[in-house]
Predict the structure.
Amino acid sequence: MSLVNIRGDGSNEWVIGGPSLRSLTIICDASYNWRITDLPCLDEANINMGNYVISGGFEGFIARFAQVRKLILHTHHPLPRLTNGYLMETLQCTFNNLKSLVIWTHFCERPAILSTICLLANAPNLEELDVAIDSIELDETEAIAEYRNTQWTDAFCANLQAVIIKGIGWLPNEMYFIELILSKAIVLRTMYLRRARLSSKSNEDGLRELMTYRRASPHAQVFFN
């Protein structure tokens, strides 16, 4: 089965399971009382849950996919704003098998920032990271304290080799994130940056700042488009 079209008010409980299921895509704007059973062979998951990301229980929900090798996750949506909500600040599981992470997010609000950091901190064997920044028009909250106050370990991004970040507006929180990755990814080889249509500063100023960042990997190369 490749597509299930669900309609209704979400009052029924939906159970997802299958001992041979290898790939799963969920695109939905509500939780519909999802219950994930054992998926021992699941290799790839694409999760786009819309409004469900601000409801309680998302940490437990995403933990059911801890065994996947590739995770595609949409964690940002236009309604409502996340100021009084949260995604993930902590996880009770480790994504030990995760090699590739594709994430749609932004760096304008604390919950989205902490969720991205939380995923990276719990994926010690991650090799490929693709970040799509899907908004730079929200009022930005200064988040440098969140980066500095997080207790980093030697395993943070220790196996990360390739990074793509699209939609950069040269905003401070985005720059803090780039600086963090460069300073922690000891085997990083390539980082590709792509600018958004709108930006807060010129490319020259952004690249000049970028060149001052310390790189943990002597082989790291940064490319800008």
